[in-house]
Amino acid sequence: MYKDMKKTSRNIAHASDSRNEVCNMGIHGNRLTRFLSTLLLTLLISLKLGGIILWTPGAAYSQPVSPCISPTAVFNSVPYAINTPLQTTPGFPLTFYGGALTFSAALSGSAFYPNDGNGGIRVRNDQGPAIGDYLYVQPTNSPNYRTTNNRTTYTFTFSQAVSNFRVVVGGLNNFDGTTVRALNGASEVVLNDSNFTDLVPNIPNGVLPTRIGRETITGGFTGYTIFSANSGGGFGVDTNRYTLTITQPITQLVVVTGKNNDSTSQVTIGFTTFSSCPSISGTVFNDVNGSQIQDGGEVGTNGGGLNAVLVNTATNQVVAVTTVATNGTYTFRSVDENTNYTVRITTANPAIGSSPPPAVILPTNFVNTGENLNGVIDGTVDGIISVPITINNVSGVNLGIQQLPTAVGGTAPGQVNPGGTNAVAVPTSLFTGSTDPDGGTVVQYRITAFPANATSITINSVNFTAATFPVGGVTITTAQLAGISVDPIDGAVTVAIPFRAIDNANQLSSNTANASLPFTAPVAAPPDVLLVKRITAVNGSTTNLTSFVDETSGPNAADDNNPLWPAGYLIGGGTSNPADPFITGAIAIRPGDILDYTVYFLNAGQGLATNVRVCDRLEPQLEFVPTSFNGQSPNDGGIIPEQGIALAVGSTTPTAFLSNINDPPDRGQFVATPTVPPNCNTSDNPNGTVVVNVTRTTGSPTLPQVPNATAPGTPPTSFGFVRFQARVR
Description:
By secondary structure, this protein is mostly beta strands.
């Protein structure tokens, strides 16, 4: 049989040598060459010679098998019988994943396959549905494999170079060891500790597999060695395991196994969970300046909790979900090649296969700022980026997010409302307490609406009223805050300026704050109405009334000397009476005499006087004359049966003649005893009281208030008098 195989080999070699000739002759239409060419295109022969697999050159005409091995791909694609020795029948090479991976094994030294229910090379399925079919190997009698030739060599060959290769190697019990070497063509891919992760200990003693590191063992084989460091063991492959991950391109993986001591027992290993498809990786980053590129100083983030979701563009189905790490990184391992995907970030955790994919939902107060693929911005800010995959890994699939700034308002110290059309400057500190997290800066402010309780606002030298304020608000820089002023409406009010903050990434705060300016109502300056009463005529004559008694003490002593009285306005008095020196300037009065009494008034205060009422009670020896001014005009709008009272406002002569009864809008009345007139600051009325309301809001003319005098006779409504006559009894 060996001779036949050599003959076949020579025939194949001859056919291979003739291939170029056949192809060249085929140009001239030689039928024989076309026949041989067709034959060679369909011929694929493998030859087992001492564990070395030889492929005929004719295989080069076949379409290459994709090296992509996804975790869900069918491992036992032939399929081989489960738990049946395969080293003899069908023999090596064994083909898995539809030809993407081939496997062969070679014994050396004292190693052999035991003839029992576990020995040899098998496909098994005893680790549950998550693992499914896997490659199980168990030679025996391989003591001290690192220092002797007692070992088994396993060779995994890929149809094309693969990146991101991953396999779980388990069952390293009782000092089982592996020395691993990876190749890309003829070049070694050097492995180190970072390639061997997820170490799981032996149970129950909890001893982890031991890393020896890169070394050259007997026979000149160089690779990375890792072995079990426990004395217990068994045929299981679910303990004492590690995960081998190689991101660089490789075409072949060689694993040399045996015992790391002098034991001659079985060396049981399970190779499970192969994958070698391209990967997609990237970073979610805090885009502080909104450039959509991760600039210097901008760090990765997961916003407090994000998932990256991989979606097949053609089917719109979710194919993978992975958690974004706290540093913002994420990786999808073993994605299908030659496929278009999108990556989106969201707080949702969708089921694999779900469609449509979840919406992009970010943690509270975060927004998307833009996406880029290795620095190329995709142009649509939506938390989604397209990723076309060929056969290579794709990294740099980056998505920018940012926390929004927070508008923080302030309240100015209270101040008196200036009243009228007067603007008040707004302190910049009422805005600048706004914040931007994670290193950002608030650089602008948007006043979103016209302020409450204001008649106008000036922003950056432009004055706005409620009618002219722009619908979209007014945006200004931090420097322009100094130019804001408001004119408050009158009274005790708080002007509230609503605004939102904008950061250096041009992101607008989600909240609205208020810059508040509280105003108190101005304290009204008090009026001070002075009253001076004099007799200004006796029996219609003013003769001998050129002097009067001038008080020199008491709270009202200076009232008639106030400089705001118009010059010469106050008249009345009498001649000296030598018989009574205590009544200086008095004149002789007899029963039956008619006396004119004049009560002068003057607002000598600082504010308006309202509700001014003059009340004058008659002395017991006097009798009110109700007809003193009958027939005189103008009257004051009353019924006018009798007119016994005169009123002057801003004049030396009466400006209105009032009735004696309560008949508004007429302002005068005589209240006879015993009725006590209201609002006259008296509790009795023994002889009648003359009452005149100087101010009024009805009738004509109105006089709502008596203004304060700012100069003698100015304004003219700041002074006047009330006059009536009384008969001496």
